[in-house]
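Q: My labmate handed me this sequence with no annotations at all. I'd like to see what the chain might look like in three dimensions before we decide whether it's worth expressing. Could you predict it?
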Amino acid sequence: MIRWLVALLLMSLALSSYSLATSEAQAAATVPAIHYVTGSPVIFATHSELMGYGFSWGPSDGTFGAIPAAGTSYTFYGTGGSMPSRACTGTPNVKEGAFMFTGTLDHVTGSNGCTKLFGPGDGPAGWVFDKDYAGGGQVIRFDGGGKSGWLMPFHGEVWWQNPNTPDHKCNVAGGSGSKVNCFY
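A: Here is what I predict for the chain of 184 residues:
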């Protein structure tokens, strides 16, 4: 009985090894070549330019999305904050939210009047996952089942008070002494 089980186990391992080797060979045969070009860094937008479009800061939060527009233009999406100004006719004085920018792949050239797309608390009624912060930017094209469009994932934060520190903030790792709002 034990010899039969050992034989069955060895045969299973041999078959799975063959299947794995075949799958790896097939995957290697279908990997496309990747081509890229390197160059000097280009300043995409200065703080002064963003202020001229009505923003106090942004884009940030690590994600920035781009959708091709006419010619070499793009519509960009990222997190930022607006300020009261003539350039900000949309939603001035917003502490933070997701906004739209325009330009080329080399440079931001404007905005949509700094109109907030969404921000803290704009989640569905009854949801509190974005009570204190909501940021987005990356856009992903989808097309299937007769539907197509763009999806913008975002993350939301609920901040909590740290009872172990006098200012109720959380320490940033690495020993820098920096502190941030504690969030989920």
